[in-house]
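pasting for ref. prot 1 ->
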Amino acid sequence: KLDQPNLILLDLNMPKMNGLEFLHLIKNNENLKFIPVVVFTTSNNHQDLIKAFEIGVAGYIVKPLRYENYIIQIEKYF
């Protein structure tokens, strides 16, 4: 059995499949669905935000952020 991550950081803009499609795959996988996923993206598209929360994202953060803000957001999940 492989170790699983404690947190997944996900961008919506990926080359082969978009982040929402990947999030859907994670949340429909029995072994992965309980891992919190936080979207870090440059997209401030309101529909992406709504869809991400409907699928089950734990957080949605629009980039760019200062380094300290990344740490604050990640520490929320530990």
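and prot 2 ->
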Amino acid sequence: MNQVLDRNLDDMCSSLSRLKGLAQDLGGEIDTQNDLLGRLNAKTDKADFNIMRQNKEMGRILKK
């Protein structure tokens, strides 16, 4: 009976170790994606600012 329990515990330990590795890899991927999203957000903010500025300038030009 103890051997069966030990085998089951060993199997659980192996599965949990694999799950831990997968969770760590997923965490790393999420960190990478967050960095990419941060850079993308900065670039879209800059583009939005430029578009707003150009729209104001176009409005000013068209009113003349």
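Residues 2 and 8 are 10 Å apart (CA to CA).
The chain has a mean pLDDT of 96.
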